[in-house]
Design a protein that fits this description.
It is built from 13 helices and no strands. The chain has 354 residues and is mainly α. The protein has one domain.
């Protein structure tokens, strides 16, 4: 069998798996948890006041996509950052292997606007790293809050342990990379060998980056992080917590009160599903997130129909606006080009306006 044929069969198999998971979730598992007629009855009870609040939360969530990119890529305007993030996120939801497609699209759009390759690479890397650092931190924070509040932390214990271990290794490696060129180069070479070995097991690779790539990243990222790490952390945290806000408001609006699922329990369920949702089984974690979040919230005491209704509304509000905005942005993104950046310009030479 030729490599091209093998890759084609792998894509077909992964596509079939995605379709199977999504179909099983929405046509078997969720209806088993709560009859859709009961779920719809709960949704119909939404007041106009709650609808306005939920729409406002969804708008806020979309607005928080841009700031981390504005911090990581000085000179990027709010409109430009919104266009890039909405288009790339929309692609990651609807396209198989969407994360890679989203990153490639972000890179291509920013380069076409005149940003230097190394600055775009730095921004893509830092925003991705900070997002993953937060995802790994949330279960650890959640299990601490559950323990303090006297809640049941068993459901989160494994995720928190794995998250803490991976986060510790990742942060330690990141700090070491920033310490010196030699250490950055050594870690880069080891990471490249391990990645190439792993890709070789699925007949992919090898990677084209290595130690020199890590050395260049250290040089580019060190100065920016020295001045902006706190702003990047705050902006990334605000973006993540705006998603959690949509979940909490959905729960309260759809008859899942704090007496059934407390704020801490909702955060624990959400942080667990953030980890699960990173597994690239289905585009945007569709099916995986709904099933995992429903199970966790019901496990904490939420009513079946109310939880399913809240989860479906939450997913609608965090996905559909991005798909709509992303579609519109994809058709107009060339209009948002700022001043062209000279490749030889200073690292923080601005493009466009803030």
């Amino acid at each position: 069998m030729t490599p091209a044929r093998r890759r084609s069969l792998q894509r077909i198999a992964l596509g079939a798996l995605s379709v199977g998971v999504i179909a099983a979730t929405f046509f078997y598992f969720l209806p088993t948890v709560a009859d859709y007629r009961d779920v719809w009855a709960v949704v119909q009870e939404l007041s106009w006041a709650w609808i306005a609040v939920l729409v406002g939360a969804a708008v806020l969530n979309v607005a928080t996509f841009a700031p981390p990119w504005m911090v990581a890529l000085p000179g990027l305007s709010f409109v430009q950052a919104t266009v890039v993030t909405q288009v790339s996120t929309a692609l990651s939801i609807v396209v198989p292997a969407g994360l890679a497609a989203g990153v490639a699209t972000s890179f291509g759009m920013l380069r076409s606007w005149g940003f230097a390759t190394r600055r775009v690479t730095r921004a893509v890397t830092l925003t991705g790293l900070w997002n993953q650092f937060l995802n790994l931190s949330f279960p650890v924070v959640a299990i601490f809050l559950l323990t303090v509040s006297g809640g049941d932390a068993k459901v989160l214990a494994v995720a928190a342990f794995v998250g803490a271990a991976v986060l510790g290794v990742a942060v330690a490696a990141f700090v070491v990379v920033l310490l010196s060129d030699r250490l950055a180069g050594d870690i880069g070479e080891v990471a490249a060998r391990l990645t190439s070995w792993a890709l070789g097991k699925v007949r992919r690779g090898p990677v084209t980056w290595g130690g020199p790539s890590f050395e260049r990243f250290r040089s580019d990222a060190g100065e920016l992080l020295q001045d902006r790490w706190h702003a990047l952390t705050a902006a990334s945290l605000a973006g993540s917590l705006s998603v959690f806000l949509v979940l909490v408001l959905s729960l309260r609006a759809l008859d899942v009160p704090a007496s059934e699922v407390s704020l801490v329990e909702a955060f624990a369920a959400w942080s667990l599903v953030r980890i699960i949702g990173t597994i690239p089984i289905t585009p945007g974690g569709i099916g995986i997130v709904e099933l995992g979040l429903t199970g966790a919230l019901i496990g904490f005491g939420g009513g079946n129909a109310g939880v399913v209704a809240a989860v479906l509304v939450y997913r609608f509000l965090t996905m559909v606006p991005t798909l709509l905005v992303g579609l519109g942005a994809a058709a107009t993104w060339r209009r948002h080009r700022g001043a062209v950046v000279d490749e030889a310009a200073a690292p923080d030479h601005p493009v466009g306006t803030m």
